[in-house]
Design brief:
By secondary structure, the chain is mostly helical. The chain has one domain: Growth Hormone, Chain: A (Up-down Bundle). The chain starts with 7 loop residues before the first helix and ends with a helix.
């Protein structure tokens, strides 16, 4: 069996496996207006193409990892790429808003495969600081997708029409499938695979989901992600309130992703030098600075760029600094069920994001002060959950001092 080396090429491949998710969200956001005009659909109807995608994405995350634990990593990744290509093709040729919603659902079913299975592949192969460094490298390169996708999407929509966005996704699927066939080894040996039986799977799901430490650790990134995802889901209305056209989506996404990449870089640099709990504490300090700046600017500065988007970059710096450490803590709860554990973590994150995009974001997207308040609320809730986790799991030295 071939093994995965910790080279930048391996990180690039694993990052590429996660990119269908952000491509499917960020690249088509500039097309909302064009889709509404083409299909004579309301803004709420177009927004449902995003919500349908996210709910399907979250639901299938319950299965990607379990299937990969039973059948191996490569077969599930290949299946995910093939279904994603089919869904993208359907979106490109959709004749009405209903069929677009349907094929966006097909995209959502498959787009999370690489994210879930890729995390398990990293933990199959590496441990300790090496795993955190590779996770940080993947996060660093993954950050390029949300940064480039809306910029490319805006240009493509203006020059070639909104359907070209989905044709690009079809082409990306083909290239990714070829790359996986040539470079990605199978990392789960046969003796390590879990039985694919309904009773066994139900037992495994119940074992993970009923553990309070899992719910807390998975809830922390879920709430932090919602803190800036609400800006992504509401990007068309938010940017319009700042006077930005479809050519200018980089005003929001560039600082956001620069923050992600810088945070991931720092996480990789301090891996093995700084304790995970200390790293999370530093990350929360950064997020707090971003939240305070965001609330203050939204309250007292007239809508404009760049001031209204810079604090979001500070916030995402903190979230990406925190993410590798918390993700590894989650996966280490169940070493023999990392795929399933990663699935459940992803399900929580994106199911909640689907609720945010379908119910909260449309109501507040055009109001910067309300968006800033929502970010502050999600961050406060995530910090409360993290503190509860620390109280349940004190550091080893503290435990030794207990009678």
């Amino acid at each position: 069996m071939r093994t995965l080396s910790r080279r930048w090429s391996s990180a690039a491949l694993l990052a590429a496996l996660t990119m269908p998710g952000p491509f499917s969200i960020d690249m088509y956001l500039p097309a909302f207006g064009a889709i509404a005009r083409d299909f004579d659909a309301s803004p709420i109807a177009v927004q449902q193409t995003l919500s349908a995608y996210l709910f399907a994405y979250a639901f299938m995350m319950l299965w990607h990892g379990a299937l990969a634990d039973a059948l191996g990593r490569r077969p599930i990744i290949f299946a995910g790429i093939a279904i994603y290509a089919l869904g993208s093709l359907g979106c490109a040729i959709a004749g009405n808003i209903e069929s677009l919603v349907l094929f966006r659902t097909v995209q959502g079913i498959s787009a999370g495969t690489g994210l879930v299975v890729g995390r398990a592949i990293i933990r199959d192969t590496f441990h300790g600081p090496e795993a955190q460094r590779l996770m940080a490298q993947v996060t660093l390169m993954f950050g390029l997708a949300p940064a480039l996708a809306p910029v490319v999407g805006g240009a493509v929509v203006n020059l070639l029409g909104w359907r070209s966005v989905f044709w690009l996704m079809v082409g990306f699927s083909v290239v990714l499938g070829i790359w996986v066939a040539r470079a990605l080894p199978e990392t789960l040996p046969l003796p390590m695979r879990q039985p694919l039986r309904a009773s066994a799977m139900w037992h495994n799901y119940r074992t993970v989901i009923t553990r309070i430490d899992f719910l807390m650790l998975a809830g922390v990134p879920t709430l932090n992600f919602a803190g800036f995802f609400i800006y992504i889901a509401g990007a068309p209305a938010f940017l319009q309130s700042l006077g930005v056209t479809t050519w200018g989506y980089a005003w929001l996404f560039a600082p956001m992703i620069i923050g992600v990449m810088l945070g991931a870089t720092l996480s990789g640099r301090i891996a093995g030098r700084v304790d995970a709990r200390q790293q999370v504490a530093i990350a929360y300090s950064c997020m707090t600075i971003g939240v305070v700046l965001n609330v203050a600017i939204a309250a007292w500065v007239p809508p404009s760029v760049p001031l209204h988007v810079v604090p979001i970059g500070v916030y995402t710096f903190g979230t990406s600094l925190m993410m590798p450490s918390v993700t590894l803590l989650v996966l280490d709860l169940y070493p023999t069920m990392r795929g399933l554990t990663s699935s459940l973590q992803g399900f929580m994150q994106f199911a909640f994001s689907g609720v945010v995009s379908g119910s909260i974001a449309p109501l507040i997207a055009s109001s910067p002060p309300t968006l800033a308040a929502a970010m502050a609320m999600f961050t406060l809730l995530s910090y409360a959950v993290w503190r509860c986790y620390l109280m349940r799991n004190p550091p080893p030295r503290t435990r030794e001092l207990e009678p």
